[in-house]
Amino acid sequence: MSDVSSSAKGRCRCGRVEFEVHARPLVTMACHCTGCQRMSSSAFSLSALFPGEAFSVTRGEPVIGGLHGATRHFFCDYCMSWLFTRPEGVGDFVNVRSTMFENAADYRPFIETFTKEKLAWASTGATHSFDGFPPEDRFPALLSEYASLSE
Fold first, then answer.
1. What is the DSSP secondary-structure string of the chain?
2. Which positions ≥6 away from 88 have C-beta within 8 Å?
3. pLDDT at 1
4. What is the percent of the chain where pLDDT is above 90?
5. Which residues contact 101 (CB under 8 A, 6 or more apart)?
6. How do strand 111-113 and strand 27-31 relate by DSSP bridges?
7. Burial (0-12, 13-18, 19+ Cβ within 10 Å), 57
8. Number of C-alpha atoms within 13 angstroms, CB side, residue 135?
9. Domains of the chain, with CATH numbers?
């Protein structure tokens, strides 16, 4: 985790939408839920959670796709790359698809979620695994542990 920079740039596949973050992630994740499998056309989605104020779109206009409610998924309107999610009910945070970063290899998942929906052959190497989302009372310790790995 110590390889993750406090500043990073990313973009969609075609390059029409670009973004930046100016913070280290609070945590990195892999989600095995069937929704993420379908949205990513893969066995799981990879993401990194950032405070909202650390994230900005620097080029282009992402559009909402996938979920259109309180939790919103954002995509490039041209190549349809899934770029980031603004989750509901957790304050101002942005969950960025870590494979969109220029330094994507630095964002190894620390936790994996929805392993109850995991494809049997899929493996992430995450440190912590949860059948669904981690219990809310576990988040402070998980974030603290992840932060200590980045020091």
1. -TT--S-EEEE-SSSSSEEEE-S--SEEEEE--HHHHHHHTSS-EEEEEEEGGGEEEEES--EEEEEESSSEEEE-TTT--EEEEE-SSSSSEEEEEGGGBTTGGG---SEEE-GGG--TT-----SEE-SSSPPGGGHHHHHHHHHHHT-
2. 69, 70, 71
3. 46
4. 75
5. 8, 9, 10, 48, 107
6. parallel
7. middle
8. 3
9. 8-144 (2.170.150.70)
Residues 1-59: tens digit of each pLDDT: 446 778 899 999 999 999 999 999 999 999 999 988 998 889 999 999 999 999 999 99
Token digits for 123?
């493996």
Question: Which token pair is 93?
Answer: 């945070």
pTM: 0.90
The predicted-structure confidence for 103-117, as pLDDT tens digits, reads as follows 999 999 999 999 999
- pLDDT in the model for residue 3: 62
Is the separation of the CB atoms in 48 and 28 below 8 Å? yes
- Per the document, the length of the chain is 151
* Per-residue pLDDT reduced to its tens digit, 118-141: 999 999 999 999 999 999 899 999
CA 77 to chain centre: 19
- Site of tokens 């049997």: 120
